[in-house]
């Protein structure tokens, strides 16, 4: 390829060169194209498993320095010399960096990847997509280029490459060479535009997230094998007991019910109240119906556990591990999300199934322990702090650990001298349900929830009880009502601007962006409710109604996320021999040396309770627990 014919970004030259010595810029944009087909792709796999698979082939790469672009096979690129002391950037660097580390075996580097001793010739590898996510600019490279420059990029060349083994071709097609050159070119332009807005501590967090997920959670192969045997035996047991040809067929279930002169259930979901009621009335007549939801759940769990087992590898210490995908700033709040590889480590099943627990898959050997630590009542604490509810905050600062007791004291519902809220409610006449009501109010009402939201979480309460909790909360929380009104006013002012956009500043200095809001006619799901017009926002991966619930929830979750970024970076840096293995919202799981478990648990607790300068008066409470197997 001698010329670049794709659309150009203003002020960015593109000269194709065969001479790597011409790549003299301080920043090099790098892009790989790799073989993929069917389920052997990043839609179904994590980066490490993909790159270490026997089918892996990185057949072409491009490197662009702002003027010159080299295109060729990765084996022909001089990593040690050309990248020395430079910053590398890729659009999806959690993948491209993994290609370098695990697919190409880190040429020019020294040490074992994902360990503190690992050294690369380049200064850093950063990610333009992560920087875009941080700024709430979501989407693939072609979509972002269209948003920011109005440039249309075709992905047709990449789509046509599925299943093509380029090792069998005499030469790489010219359109593929141009395509890979274009990806590094556009990535570079995007990075230059966003780089200054992505703080150093956020870049550190992104890299720590990549290393943690590449390294994976510790596990035990044998435990997984035995678990799969148990689950498959259970599946066969349910299968034999359900007298339907197709075990999950709704039409066949309806026919069986009609044949037995029983009205068929509307659903067999174990979470459905309607199905629970149906079982109570008719379940004794055809008892095998109870097994359908269990059969479905076991099937689903087998699929997930098989996927986990397929990824197991043994690291340099002899520890079995499962790598996974965790997306930095995947949510509009900046929180981490599962990466779309069909395995969500943040939502592992809590329930035991005949003695097997999916969460127990994360376990250590005798040399290590897992410290799991989260913040107690973080959302309620942050709501009180953001709104300036000093009576509640003072109770927390005075040592009250129970967030619901702190609220009850702040609202004047119980004496400040109460030391055990549960015992007080049990022993005081007429107050037996007070803590439950305060808890329901604190958990739901801070985000402007009404009676129906409380009832969904507390199905044993009737509408009047739930409404009484809402009234209690709102009458005693004028500071929260004022905060809601300020958020609503901010959104209203933003929508009235020509751009229909607004920014929600956070105490950390970070900002939440709500761009290009629009009005939409909403059809409520609840029967009898009339359609209404609402202001909405499209985040790129989902659209949401902009209301008090969204804004207050986003506000609090974003602050909690910023606190976790700081704590996570410190845990990665300040605990020699320890390694974080999973983040689940406000919870961090850290693998620590067994002989230092108590010491490190205390240190993690201190790190998580230590507040930054922008939250110096925020009372936090961290609760660490030492485990052999994850079970929280």
> What topology, given as strand order, has the largest sheet?
1-4-3-2-5-6
Give the mean pLDDT: 94
Number of strands: 22
The low-pLDDT segments are none
Distance between the termini: 56 Å
Number of separate helices: 22
Q: Shape from CA axes?
A: globular
Rg (CA only): 28 Å
- Share of residues in helices: 40-55%
How much of the sequence is in beta strands?
Answer: 15-25%
Described by strand count, sense and barrel closure, the largest sheet is:
6 strands, mixed
Quaternary organisation of the protein chains: single chain
Walk me through this protein's architecture.
The mean pLDDT is 94. Helix 13 crosses helix 20 (478-496) and helix 18 packs across helix 19 (463-475). The radius of gyration is 28 Å and the shape is globular. The strands form 7 sheets. A 6-stranded mixed β-sheet has the order 1-4-3-2-5-6. Strands 20-21-14-22 form a 4-stranded antiparallel β-sheet. A 3-stranded antiparallel β-sheet has the order 7-9-8. It is α+β, with helices and mostly antiparallel strands and 632 residues long. The N and C termini lie far apart (56 Å).
Overview in brief:
The chain is α+β, with helices and mostly antiparallel strands and 632 residues long. It is 42% helix and 15% strand.
Features:
alpha+beta; 22 helices; four-stranded antiparallel beta sheet; six-stranded mixed beta sheet; 632 residues
């Amino acid at each position: 390829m001698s010329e670049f014919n794709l659309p150009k970004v203003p002020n960015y030259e593109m000269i194709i060169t065969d001479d790597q010595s011409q790549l003299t810029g301080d920043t090099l944009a790098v892009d790989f194209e790799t073989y993929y087909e069917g389920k052997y792709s990043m839609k179904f796999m994590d980066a490490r498993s993909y790159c270490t698979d026997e089918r892996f082939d990185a057949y072409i790469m491009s490197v662009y320095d702002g003027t010159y672009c080299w295109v060729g096979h990765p084996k022909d690129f001089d990593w040690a010399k050309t990248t020395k002391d430079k910053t590398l950037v890729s659009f999806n660097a959690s993948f491209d960096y993994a290609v370098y580390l695990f697919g190409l075996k880190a040429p020019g580097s020294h040490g074992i990847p994902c360990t503190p001793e690992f050294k690369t010739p380049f200064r850093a590898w950063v990610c333009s997509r992560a920087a875009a996510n941080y700024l709430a600019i979501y989407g693939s490279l072609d979509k972002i280029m269209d948003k920011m420059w109005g440039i249309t990029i075709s992905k047709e060349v990449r789509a046509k490459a599925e299943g093509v083994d380029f090792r069998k071709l005499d030469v790489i097609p010219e359109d593929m060479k141009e395509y890979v050159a274009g990806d590094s070119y556009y990535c570079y332009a995007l990075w230059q535009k966003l780089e200054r807005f992505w703080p150093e501590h956020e870049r550190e967090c992104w890299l720590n997230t990549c290393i943690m997920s590449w390294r994976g959670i510790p596990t035990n192969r044998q435990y997984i094998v035995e678990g799969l045997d148990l689950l498959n035996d259970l599946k066969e047991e349910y299968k034999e007991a359900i007298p339907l040809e197709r075990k999950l067929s709704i039409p066949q279930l309806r026919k069986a019910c009609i044949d037995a002169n029983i009205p068929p259930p509307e659903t067999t979901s174990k979470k459905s109240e309607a199905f629970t009621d149906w079982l109570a009335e008719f379940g004794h007549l055809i008892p095998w119906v109870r097994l359908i939801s269990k059969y479905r759940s076991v099937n689903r769990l087998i699929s997930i556990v098989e996927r986990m087992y397929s990824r197991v590898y043994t690291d340099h210490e002899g520890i079995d591990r499962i790598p996974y995908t965790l997306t930095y700033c995947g949510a509009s709040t900046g929180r981490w999300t599962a990466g779309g590889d069909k395995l969500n480590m943040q939502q592992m099943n809590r329930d035991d199934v005949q003695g097997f627990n999916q969460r127990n898959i994360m376990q250590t050997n005798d040399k290590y322990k897992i410290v799991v630590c989260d913040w107690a009542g973080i959302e309620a604490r942050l709501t009180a702090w953001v709104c300036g509810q000093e009576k509640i905050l003072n109770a927390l600062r005075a040592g009250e650990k129970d967030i619901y007791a702190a609220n009850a004291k702040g609202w004047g519902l119980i004496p400040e001298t109460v030391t055990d809220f549960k015992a007080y409610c049990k022993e005081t006449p007429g107050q037996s349900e007070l803590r439950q009501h305060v808890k329901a109010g604190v958990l739901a009402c801070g985000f402007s929830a009404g009676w129906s939201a409380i009832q969904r979480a507390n199905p044993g309460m009737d509408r009047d009880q739930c409404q009484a909790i809402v009234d209690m909360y709102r009458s005693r929380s004028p500071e929260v009502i004022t905060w809601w009104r300020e958020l609503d006013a901010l959104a209203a002012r933003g929508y009235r601007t020509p751009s229909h956009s607004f920014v929600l500043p956070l105490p950390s200095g970070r900002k939440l962006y709500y761009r290009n809001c629009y009005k939409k006619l909403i059809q409520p799901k609840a029967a009898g409710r009339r359609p209404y017009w609402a202001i909405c926002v499209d985040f790129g991966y989902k659209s949401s109604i902009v209301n008090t619930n969204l804004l207050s929830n986003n506000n609090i979750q974003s602050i909690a996320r910023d606190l976790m970024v700081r704590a996570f970076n410190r845990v990665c840096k300040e605990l020699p021999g320890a390694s974080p293995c999973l983040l689940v919202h406000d919870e961090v799981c850290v693998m620590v040396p067994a002989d230092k478990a108590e010491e490190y648990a205390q240190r993690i607790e201190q790190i998580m309770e230590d507040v930054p300068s922008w939250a110096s008066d925020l009372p936090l409470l961290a609760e660490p627990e030492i485990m052999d197997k994850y079970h929280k």
